[in-house]
Each structure stands twice: as C-alpha cells, then as structure tokens.
Amino acid sequence: MLDVRRLRLLYEFAAQGSISATAVATGQTASAVSQQLAALEKETGVSLLERTARSAQLTDAGRRLVAHTAHILEAIDAAETDLAAESAEPRGRVTVTAFPTVAVALAGPIVRRLRRYPELQMVLLQQHTVSESLSRVRSGEIDLALIDDWSGQRRPATTGPLTFHHLVNDPLVAVLPVRHPLADKEVLSAHELAGESWIASPEGEPSRMALARLWRTEGISAPVSEFEGLDTILTLVAKGLGVTVAPWMAAAERKDVAVRKVAEDLPGRDVYVVHRTASTGRPAVMTVLQALHQAARKLMAAAEQF
C-alpha cells in the first residue's frame, strides 16, 4: 500500500522541482526528503526519480504517479468534506499557520468567536516561510495559512489547487521610542527621521526592501543596525536604540513604543488566508475562515481611526 504522506512529498517535489527546494518548502532536511522518496520508490517497485550528482527529475513513471496523486489528494479532500457535511455544526480539528505578528493581532478575537463551537478545535502554528506554508496547505498537512505579500500586486483568487482570500492591507507606520522628541507628532516624514539610527531586517527581507524603496524615493540614507524578526526590532526600538518602519498590525498592540503615521505613500503588505479549493465545503474550515475575516475587519477598523 502506498503511503499518502510520501505521495504528498512526491507531489510537492513535482511543484518545487528539486530535492533542496522541496526540503525548504516542507521544513525537512534534503536527506530526509530523499530518503522518503526512495522509500516510495521501493513501495511502487519502479524508479520515480532520475538522479544525478547535482539534481533529480521525475521519470515518466514519476510523472504518472504525480498525476494520480493529484486525484488522490482531491479524493481525500472530497471525502473529508462529504463526511463533515453530515453535521451542520462545525466540528473537528482545523490547523492554521501564521507569521507571529499576525497571529498575535488576530488570535484573541478568533479564539473568542470560536468558543461558541465546542466541537471545533483550532490549532495555530508558527509560520517559518510563506513557501513552506503554501506547501503544507497544498499537501493537506494544514488547512489554512495566513501569509503576507509585499509585492503590492493582488494575487489571483485561485492558483492551481489553492484559493487565496485577501484579508487586509496592513499599512506601514513609523515606530519610535516612547520618549523620542518626535513622538509628540502625529505624522512623520522620512526626512524627519533621516538623521536617526535605524533598526531594520537584514537586506533581502520584504520589510527591508520596503524601507529601501522609501529611502530611494526620498533620496535619503541612514545608518542601519540589522536584526531578524519584527518583534526583536520593536523591542530594541522600545529600549531606545533606534527607529524603524513596521506593519501596523505588528506594532499596534504594543504600549512600549510610539506608533505614528508616515507622511509618504507606502504600499504596506497584503495579508491573505489560503486553503485548498477542495476544502471549500468543509464547515469547520469555512467557520475558521469566516472568523479570520471578521477579526481582520475589526482590527483594520481600528487602524482607520489611528
């Protein structure tokens, strides 16, 4: 009998195109991925991958099995949806991944709303990368993923087997120490902050690229200390070590920093919730999705009054 988890891994390999990319997307080591795919080859009795010293690609048999796997995963989703529809009351376990800043902002309202469904259990896991979360949704390992997108371009509602729901546009704000001389102002421009010490994510990170775009547009530069993680950056700002720009959702609940509007037109980030299209009929998944929408609307209503 074929192991469904290994079939999911093969399906992800077909989407990613390499062992290393599959390992990153699934949060495993390349060695573990390779071993699992080799075990699947033993189960099938045929070669699924053509390996060289530096790469691997699907054989004809591997491509045929990937096509079968797509139908298998759809059938599993359909079975889960059909059985869940037996009860109008949402029940069961719904697994969600989210990056920390959004998880903290939305978790409270969602948990309070879901208390009315005693048979429904939501499990919230920390997201490491967007690609890993999308991979885990695609494979069926998790049900919903909250992801951010800094491109400024709206994603299509449906991409392959996944459905994307746009939750909010999370604007960028200036964040300063509470006792900073400029904290008394309601709106700050980039030029007013140009002479400050800045704290930002490392180069290549989405939030750092947004800051770089702002500086490029305004023709300014400033000294930057680099740290990973928005929470770490905001904590260092609170300690008086510099200033930064950050998504509003990341800073709004903090009482140890001053959060101010930015005069320049900054695109911010778009936040999406993603699920397998085949899960659309599952009451439990749709109930959590609705709770996410309502929590996001309530939160951003507060942002508009900011």
From TrEMBL:
Task: Extract one GO molecular function annotation from the record.
Answer: DNA binding
**Record keywords:** DNA-binding, Transcription, Transcription regulation
Task: Kindly give the InterPro entries that the UniProt entry links to this protein.
Answer: LysR_HTH_N (IPR000847), LysR_subst-bd (IPR005119), WH-like_DNA-bd_sf (IPR036388), WH_DNA-bd_sf (IPR036390)
Q: Can the keyword Nucleus be found in this entry's annotation?
A: no
- Cross-referenced PROSITE patterns: HTH_LYSR
Top-level division of the source organism's lineage = Bacteria
Any Gene Ontology CC annotation: protein-DNA complex
Task: Quote the Pfam families the UniProt record gives.
Answer: HTH_1, LysR_substrate
Keyword flag Transcription regulation: yes
Q: Which residues form the HTH lysR-type domain?
A: 2-59
SUPFAM superfamilies linked? Periplasmic binding protein-like II, Winged helix' DNA-binding domain
Family membership noted in the UniProt record? Belongs to the LysR transcriptional regulatory family.
PANTHER family on file = LYSR SUBSTRATE-BINDING (PTHR30346:SF29), TRANSCRIPTIONAL DUAL REGULATOR HCAR-RELATED (PTHR30346)
Q: What is this protein called?
A: LysR family transcriptional regulator
- Where does this protein come from, organism-wise? Glycomyces luteolus
